[in-house]
Each structure stands twice: as C-alpha cells, then as structure tokens.
Amino acid sequence: MTTPAHAPTLALEVTGLEVAYGGIRAVKGVSFEVRDGELVSLIGANGAGKTTTLKALTGLLAAGSGDIRLQGLSIRGQGAWDLARQGLVMVPEGRGIFARMTITENLLMGAFTRRDDEVDADMDRVFGLFPRLKERCGQLAGTLSGGEQQMLAIGRALMARPKLLLLDEPSMGLAPLMVDKIFEVVADIHRQGVTVLLVEQNARRALQLASRAYVMESGEITLSGAAADLLDDPKVRQAYLGA
To answer: What domains are defined for the chain?
Structure first.
C-alpha cells in the first residue's frame, strides 16, 4: 500500500482579508495561499488592491477582518518589525531605499534584526547577484539610477534572509533591459530556495515566471490557477496581455 503524499506546507495563508481606507473597502474578503518553495504572482490593473494587500500582510496597514497565517501561525496585528524578524520581507513599490546612505549602509540596514555572524557572507552573495552594486558600494544610494535602486532594494531585502519575499511592482518605471535583469534575478532568487509572492502589472512576465497566479480586480480575487493556464485564458489575454 502506498503512503499518501503530504500536502505542501503553506508559507502564507490569507483568509477573508478586508482592508478599508476610511469608508472605502480597498480589499474585499481576499483569500489566497503561497506554498513553501513556490513563486506565486498576483496580477491586476493599477488600483486593484494589490499593494494594499501586501501592506496588510506586512503590518503596514491594519486589516479590518480576516486572518493572515505565516508558516501556520496567525500574524494579523503584528508590527512590520516583528514580521521582518520572522522572515516576512517586502521590497516596496517605489523601492524605499535610504537615499542619503551608501549602498553598503543600505544593505546593512536589511540585516538590522540579525544577530548571526554571516552578514558579511550574505553581503558577498548580494554583490555576486549585483556586481554593479559592489563597484559602487561607497556611493550614496540616492545618486543611483532607477534600475540600480531596484537592485539595491532587492539586495537589502535578501540581507534579511527572507523565508517569504514579497515583491511589489519590481519592474515599474525601468528600461526594458533592466526589466529583463530584474526578472532574471527574481528567478535566480527563487531557484536558490526563497519562496516569493510577486505583485506585478507586467502580467505576461509575471505569469511566465510563476508556477501559480491570482488575478485581482477591484479588491477581489477573480481568477486563480496555474500561471501557464492563465496565460492562455481569454479573459486574462484580453484584459492584461493586449490580445
């Protein structure tokens, strides 16, 4: 008799999440999950509620109702600093780098909550991913190009040793060559074993990268499934892929 396979462990489970700004419901009872080791994409038009959802997951916005579970434990109501210590790390929309600090100082801020002796080794790994940052490690972050700032924001997040990495619109505002580089790096990070939730308006690239995906419209999840299937879905193609 064969032994039944164990269900994959859930890195993140979101159930009935509601978030409101004043009287406006920006996120309306959203439920989704990310399994350990997955790269999952959340796509949708600007204003669909994607960034609001990520801010609620990371404690930057209060959830009105619903539950958020990280590795099986409820984290709703916890502060962003506590969640970072637990391995829930976000690269925010707009990058959020410290403009008046150097590249090295920005990366060290990513490791602020750590108390181990492998920070230097992780810095070397980040510089391996982004050689341009190593070349300019003493340069002020505010003087970098948009693409270089996005590299720095991702590198800073990796310095926190994320168990679950949230990426909010990492390709926004970047030149096509830099977009290619950023998506290559995201794929590489995932291959190294980091679980990733990618929020992205570039639906085609996001779906090509992910194993599963969710489509968000007006604060609700309207479609979900294998990313390859959503790439071929007529509704997705018409709304997001220009087909």
So the answer is: 10-240 (3.40.50.300)
